[in-house]
Amino acid sequence: MRGQIVIFGILASLCAGATAAELEVSVTDRRGEPVGDAVVTIVLHNAAANGSRNPPTRSAPSLHVVDQKALAFTPYVEVFRPGDQVAYRNSDRTRHHVYSFSPIKPFEFVLAPGVTSAPMRLERSGVIAVGCNIHDGMINYLYISDAPWAARTDERGVVVFRDLPAGAFDVRVWQPRLPPKRPDLVQSGITLRADERRSLGFALSLLPDSRLQFDREHTRY
User: Fold this and answer.
1) What is the pTM assigned to this prediction?
2) What is the pLDDT of residues 20-56, one digit of tens each?
3) Which domains does the chain carry?
4) Using an 8 Å Cβ cutoff, are 172 and 185 in contact?
5) Which residue positions does the secretion signal occupy (predicted)?
6) Strand arrangement, sheet containing 96-100
7) β-strand 21-29 against 197-204: which pairing, if any?
8) Dist. CA 52–CA 3, nearest whole Å
9) Contact of 7 with 145, CB cutoff 8 Å
């Protein structure tokens, strides 16, 4: 599977009269190993400086369900746009206490086995780190972005954006194992021609997996 792409909206007039471009983004670590669950976002290059605007976000919000099974959150990282909702489902045989200290959206749910929380609306852009107050190794990240195009990489470290208009773009990458409180990695001014298929690579320096070496401070986004 080539990643689960969440396209936040494409302005139809940008694509009119031109064949769409395609951009494949691959993310690896410094050893060249593929990095899954990296969030890739794309915006128009220098949109504000040039007086232009990014394509508007799609109007209909969606509901995402994060499962808890085998003492793990699935998916580990999920991508949202502002206005989307999230619900947590407990598919385990034990109780979970789902919580976040994030200033963007602090919350907590105590979920008995087989129970799904009420949907919770995510209004602000940013990253929300979520844990279980009973099982410290359980960690989940909600990435809320108003970028026109956003997706997370698959297990091969790859995501493909199709139907992009011709133009210049800034491509950003974020992953939970990057050092916290630092900006996303970015490659600016990536130019795509109509009908062009292009590949772009990012190599990340990553911290140890916090699900295996839990650090409560690392979750405070």
Assistant:
1) 0.84
2) 899 999 999 999 999 999 999 999 998 655 555 566 5
3) 4-57+148-204 (2.60.40.10), 63-144 (2.60.40.420)
4) yes
5) 1-20
6) 77-80, 139-144, 126-132, 96-100, 107-111
7) parallel
8) 29
9) no
